[in-house]
What does this fold into?
Amino acid sequence: MTSLVVEVGICLIGWITLYAILCYLNGCRGYEWNCRLVTLFHGILIVCVTAYIGYVDGPWPFTHPGTENTPLQIRAMVLSLGYFSFDMGWCVYFRTEGVVMLAHHTLSIVGMALTLWLGESGIEACAVLFGSEITNPLLQMRWFLRRLGRYEGALAGAVDLLFVTLFVFMRIVLGGHMLLCELASPRPRLLIKIGGVAMYLLSWVFMVDIARFAWRKARARLPRGWVWHKGPELNGHDGKSD
It folds into this structure.
């Protein structure tokens, strides 16, 4: 366990170093721009690694939950644990996120740390990483398009549509199916099952915000003067949810 703590510390230093280099080379863009570049890099990297784990290295998370961690699963969780520790510290320091996002990061950190400590259920953790991070590059692309003043074009619309579709399918549909497999299996420990339920409920909190965003987007595209008679107007903010 001591060696894992050291490895997570090294990964944390690595993410901080990458952020510092980006701030040095790209300082004119601001701190959040460079932090999101780190987030984008982590998202792409961890999706590739966890996709290989799930589809090639195995085992299949829907049929083998609660199995012993493999070396590659451990490396993936160490890498992401270092990243989430960095991003959690960044969000707290700059006070950019609300309670929901901080709860998401806290659950992610505790869940991966617990999985590493127990030495099992790594395949579920990697599956959750894959399902949650696969939408991350789209979310960051959307933010960059907004900052560059190019959010009103066809590309932004395609990004939004793909993001919503992937989120619903990966986090709600497949995530719900995997949670049922997790709860039905006798292998995973109770703490792991509780964590899975908490993460899934948090996905629904994000889903509500995304549904509100999609509703506002759809209403904005309605012909001028068209009146919707059912239900009150939804108010909300389009906040960061990565």
